[in-house]
Structure formats: structure tokens, C-alpha cells
Specification:
The complex is a heterodimer of chains A (about 280) and B (about 350). Chain A is about 35% helix and about 25% strand. With about 280 residues, chain A is of the alpha/beta class. In chain B, strand 1 and strand 2 form a beta hairpin. Classes of the chains: A alpha/beta (about 280), B mainly alpha (about 350).
Chain lengths: ~280, ~350
């Protein structure tokens, strides 16, 4: 929001907060060819906070989420999660800096693909279209990542997967393949899959947009449960009522810029900006 | 006007001439009671008890009859025409020479199928790589080996030892660590397997590539969003899903490969066709039965591959379909059950 935060990385206007921000997006610009999708986005999410991103289609909401877990590379700017830069590192960081010429020290350097994959395993991502692995059962979908990333042994991962499926209310569907499940059930398995890596932050990209109206509730209930349990969440959604209920912070995005941000009572009930008022009157 | 059994279904108002005009909205119980009145043939039977008369399809029956006659003629010709010499066919069918040839065919096919598929996967990955050099090289390979006829490749390899006398492993353009004498290394079977594999890999690469491209982009995204290691993503997520569309196309290639092995005859390897051919030149009177022997063996091989294909496809359709396609045995069982149930139903009506 303010340019001063750029210099002192990891701190926000709230000076009493000592912990680093869970997610910090700093001056991110992103183009698709000549089309500018993100135009200098600044966003800070504190640990345990729920941030809801609203905005018309094409406003860059999904792109912003995908930049946070580096599925998209920003052209300008950087993202850090729990104080760790995503997709890049400062040159010479974490090793002996003596041999490095001074002018190259501290410059941002692209991380190896392996390291980026490691960072992504600490950030959960839930897709609009679930993207479950159709050839694996619900249990294996959840258990795959902890085993593949070497965090757990296979029996441990399966035990955890069973627990997580129970948490999203699908203990009895462990052996089912995704196509045998309803959309709402698939999305709940996808949430369990994201939880299996015990991520510090979970990003939701329109988690209920591909669902029948009557199935939306069951998925929102699971997300709400996560929100109250103190997980840091960033949610792109069109469910305004849900946003009002769970959000600590609402961000309104339009044409790649943050137009307005603040607590839901402010942004949703007393929007200052014309564009926000216009959008809310259409979706409510 | 006699009452057809289906008339009760008609929603048109009943003609006034009828004795019991019955509006379609009349209570069902009334109609049922009426239908059960004994001796009243003209009354429509209740809807629930009626079986819908299937539509007659005379055209289909005629076409079936014509085809059956043609098939019978062909079979009759095969059996009775002395030209085929079925006694000689019997004599040759399990001769050791033929079986030796069959073994060579199987051996060459098996090696080339495995090497061809592995090569095809590598080339497909090259085509999909981000490195422009790898892309161009793999494209060129496919282009080259799809353009040159297999027989030309085989003959080239057969004369390879004249082009390159030794093969060696070592530093490129530098000293060699191991050197092989080409003429000793390149036995007939090696030439055959290498030639067929080179050719097979070119086609297999396109089959594999199309399979990989058919996997939804969301799967790649989900796999990398979970931070799965690259190799794991390919081996456990993308490739198993690609195999579903690769299998039928690759079996096509495999069957083609089985038949292409008949070309190794030209690099002096006696495969199934080769032994039939050489026996044919020794016993010119038996050429036709020998060709029949080869034909029947090729049919058996292809059929075996098709059976394997069914089960492989069934395995890979886990999760892609809600229920697995039934095996032939299951189909037979449900077919019999349906038939019995139908017979019972008809007897009851």
C-alpha cells in the first residue's frame, strides 16, 4: 500500500506485529504478451489471517494466486511466504559471499526447478476444477505428495490421508476414484490433498465456481473450518456472503490493480470506490 | 374395427362408435378391473402387463442373410478347393523349421517393441523439451525414419560394417576406451532388431507424444502445485494417464511390427515368413499351403496381442470410467442371465 513497506521487508504498517508476514506480495507486475494482467500489486497477509480476493473476471485474481506459488513468474516484483522469497534468492545468500563481486551480491537469482518445487510443497493450492489425479483413488490422491516429496513413509502418509479425509467428511470414500465422486466431494478431496503437505498458507482459486449450487455449502463449510482453526488462507471467490463471514481482509482487484482493501465491514458494506460499489451491486 | 392391443396408449379421443369410451384420465383401477373381466377379448390389457412389440426390421434380416450366404461360400471354397492342399498345411504347420522361424519372429518383435517404445518415449520427451536443439534433433529423427522405407534401413544396416569398420565408446572426437569389431557385433539378428527398433521408435514417438499431449494441462499444474518432483510427475501422474490413449495406438504399431519382421528375410534372417518362403523354394508344390501356414501363425500372433490389449486397456481405464468394461467372460455371464430372465418374463405373460 505504502512505498515505505518496500524498504523494510517483512514488516507491515502494524509495528506491534513482530512475526513476518505469512504472504507478502511486493510491486508485482505480470504481462501475458502485450496484455498487462497485474499492475503493481502490493498485498500483505498476516499469519492466521483469511484474505478474500474479489473482482470481475479478467481482473487478475487467479494470476495473483498463481504468482504467489510461482505457477506464473512475475516480470517485476517479488513474493515472499513466511519470510522466504518465492522462486528467487538473493545472490550469495546462504553460502560464503566473500568470493562474489560486490555488485552482484544481493541481486535476485532464479531458483532451480527443484527448489521451487520444494517451496510449492509448503504452499497449498486448491483449483477451480479440482484437478484430482483421475487414475488414483481419493486416498492415494491425498497420500501421494507427502510420499513423493519424502516427508512421510507410505504407511504414515496413508494414515494421515485417512485422517484428513475424515476431517473433510469423506472417510468412507477413501477407495473411490475421483470420477465416482460428486463435484463437492472431489473438491473436498482436493482440499485434503492440499492439507496433506501441512502447508503454511493455502490458496483457493474459485473453489466453488465449478459446483452445483447445492454442493457449494459443503465445500464452504470445510474452508470455514480451516479458517477458524487458524490456517492462513487466501481465497478468490464470488461468494460475498461467505467473504463477509470468514474474511479478516477483503481485497478488491480490478484491471490488475488493488482498488480497495480492508476489513469486510468496510469494503463490502461501505465501499469507498465507485468501481467496488458497481461490482458489489452486480454480484449481490 | 378390431381393437389393437396398443390402443390404450393412444391419447386421441376415443371414437363415439366404441362401446366403452374411456377417457385417458380415467382412474387406473377402473381400467384394470375391466381388463380382468373374463372372456372379454376386445378390452385392452392393462398397460403395466403389456410388452412393447419390437419394431420389425426386414432390411436388416435381408442384409444378414446375404452376408451369411457370402461367408458360407467363402468357407466352402476354402475347404473344398484342392488348390489349398489342407493335408500339406497340416504337415507343415508344426514343422521344426516353421517353429524356428516363428521363434525368430517373436524374438525380433519382442526386442524391437521394447527398444522401439523406450526410444519413442525418449524422442517424444525430446520433442516436448524446452531446448530447441533437442526439439529439432528429435523432429529430424522422426522425419528421417518415417520417410525412409524399412527395407532400405535394413539393407543399409546390413552393409553398415563397410561404412564404419569399428564402433567405439570414448571421448567424442577423442580417444576410445572400448572398441568393437563391427562385423562380429552386427550379427543378422542385431541388424534386424536395430533396424526395426529405429523405425519403430520414430512412429512410437508420435504415439507417445500424442498421449502426453492428451493429458489435461490441469494435471501438470496440480502436480507442480503440490511440489511433486519432476520425475515423479512424469512417471506417476502424466505417463499413466497418457498410457490410456497410447495403448490402442501402440498396439496398432505392434501388430504392424509383427508383420514387418517378414522383411528381415532380406537381411538373411529366417523368420516365420522367411522359413515358409525358403521351404517353398525347396518344395515348389507346397507354396500355397506354406503361405497359409504363415498366414495362420500371423493371425494367431495378432489375436494374442489383441487379447492382451483388451486387458491392458481395461487396467488403464481405472478411474477414467465409472465402471470397468466387462471382460468377455463377464459379458457371456450377464448375456445368459438376461436371456434366462427374458424367457422367464415371457413365460409369465
Amino acid at each position: 500500500m505504502t512505498t515505505e513497506t518496500a524498504e523494510s521487508t517483512g514488516t507491515t504498517e502494524d509495528t506491534t506485529e513482530v512475526r513476518p508476514a505469512a504472504v507478502e506480495v511486493h510491486d508485482v507486475h505480470k504481462w501475458y504478451g502485450a496484455h498487462r494482467v497485474l499492475d503493481g500489486v502490493e498485498l500483505t497477509v498476516r499469519p492466521g489471517e483469511v484474505t478474500v480476493i474479489l473482482g470481475p473476471s479478467g481482473s487478475g485474481k487467479s494470476t495473483l494466486l498463481r504468482v504467489i506459488n510461482h505457477l506464473e513468474k512475475p516480470e517485476v516484483g517479488y513474493v515472499s511466504v513466511n519470510g522466504e522469497l518465492i522462486g528467487v534468492r538473493r545472490h550469495g545468500e546462504g553460502r560464503e559471499t566473500g568470493v562474489l563481486p560486490a555488485k552482484r551480491r544481493g541481486r535476485l537469482k532464479e531458483l532451480s526447478e527443484r527448489a521451487i518445487l520444494g517451496q510449492r510443497s509448503r504452499i497449498g493450492f486448491v483449483f477451480q476444477n479440482f484437478n484430482l489425479f483421475p487414475h488414483l483413488t481419493a486416498l492415494d490422491n491425498v497420500a501421494a505428495a507427502p510420499v513423493a516429496t519424502g516427508k512421510l513413509t507410505k504407511p504414515e502418509a496413508q494414515e494421515l490421508a485417512r485422517q484428513l479425509l475424515g476431517r473433510v467428511g469423506l472417510a468412507d470414500k477413501a477407495g473411490a476414484y475421483p470420477r465416482q465422486l460428486s463435484g463437492g466431494q472431489q473438491q473436498r478431496v482436493a482440499i485434503a490433498r492440499a492439507l496433506a503437505l501441512r502447508p503454511g498458507v493455502i490458496l483457493f482459486d474459485e473453489p466453488t465456481s465449478a459446483l452445483d449450487p447445492e454442493l457449494v455449502g459443503e465445500v464452504l463449510a470445510v474452508i470455514k473450518d480451516l479458517a477458524t482453526s487458524g490456517t492462513t488462507l487466501i481465497i478468490v471467490t464470488h461468494e460475498i456472503g461467505f467473504a463477509r463471514e470468514v474474511a479478516d481482509q477483503v481485497v478488491f482487484l480490478d484491471e490488475g490493480r488493488i482498488v480497495e482493501q480492508g476489513p469486510p465491514t468496510e469494503v463490502l458494506d461501505h465501499p469507498k470506490h465507485e468501481r467496488t460499489r458497481d461490482f458489489l451491486s452486480k454480484v449481490l | 374395427m378390431s381393437e389393437p392391443p396398443g390402443a390404450a396408449v393412444s391419447l386421441a379421443p376415443a371414437p363415439p362408435a366404441e362401446e366403452t369410451p374411456e377417457p385417458s384420465s380415467a382412474p387406473r383401477t377402473a381400467r384394470l378391473a375391466e381388463a380382468e373381466r373374463p372372456g372379454d377379448d376386445t378390452a385392452p390389457r392393462p398397460l403395466a402387463a403389456q410388452r412393447v412389440l419390437p419394431l420389425r426390421r426386414p432390411g436388416r434380416w435381408i442384409a444378414t442373410a446375404i452376408v451369411l450366404v457370402l461367408v458360407a461360400q467363402i468357407v466352402h471354397g476354402l475347404v473344398t478347393n484342392p488348390f489349398y492342399q489342407w493335408d500339406r498345411f497340416q504337415y507343415w504347420f508344426l514343422r521344426p523349421t516353421i517353429l524356428d522361424g516363428l521363434f525368430i519372429t517373436l524374438e525380433v518383435t519382442a526386442y524391437s517393441a521394447v527398444l522401439g517404445l523406450l526410444g519413442g518415449i525418449l524422442i517424444a520427451l525430446g520433442r516436448l523439451s524446452r531446448s530447441p536443439v533437442l526439439r529439432v534433433v528429435s523432429w529430424t529423427y522422426t522425419w528421417l525414419f518415417r520417410s525412409v522405407p524399412l527395407i532400405v534401413v535394413l539393407l543399409f544396416l546390413y552393409n553398415f560394417s563397410a561404412l564404419y569398420r569399428t564402433l567405439s565408446i570414448g571421448v567424442p572426437f577423442g580417444p576410445a576406451f572400448f572398441t568393437f569389431d563391427e562385423s562380429r557385433l552386427a550379427t543378422d539378428i542385431v541388424v534386424a532388431v536395430v533396424g526395426l527398433s529405429l523405425n519403430e521408435a520414430a512412429y512410437a514417438s508420435e504415439v507417445v507424444r500424442s498421449g502426453i499431449l492428451a493429458v489435461d494441462q490441469g494435471q501438470h499444474e496440480a502436480a507442480s502445485a503440490l511440489g511433486l518432483p519432476k520425475r515423479y510427475q512424469f512417471r506417476k501422474i502424466v505417463f499413466p494417464q497418457a498410457l490410456r490413449s497410447i495403448t490402442p495406438n501402440y498396439v496398432n504399431l505392434l501388430i504392424n511390427l509383427i508383420k514387418s519382421t517378414s522383411l528381415v528375410f532380406y537381411v538373411s534372417l529366417l523368420d516365420l515368413f522367411g522359413s515358409a518362403q525358403s521351404m517353398g523354394s525347396t518344395y515348389p508344390g507346397d507354396i500355397v499351403p506354406l503361405l497359409l501356414v504363415a498366414t495362420i501363425w500371423y493371425l494367431i500372433l495378432t489375436s494374442a496381442v489383441s487379447v492382451v490389449q483388451f486387458y491392458v486397456e481395461r487396467y488403464f481405464s481405472r478411474g477414467a470410467t465409472r465402471t470397468l468394461p466387462p471382460t468377455p467372460l463377464q459379458k457371456l455371464r450377464t448375456g445368459l442371465r438376461d436371456l434366462r430372465a427374458r424367457a422367464r418374463r415371457e413365460a409369465a405373460i
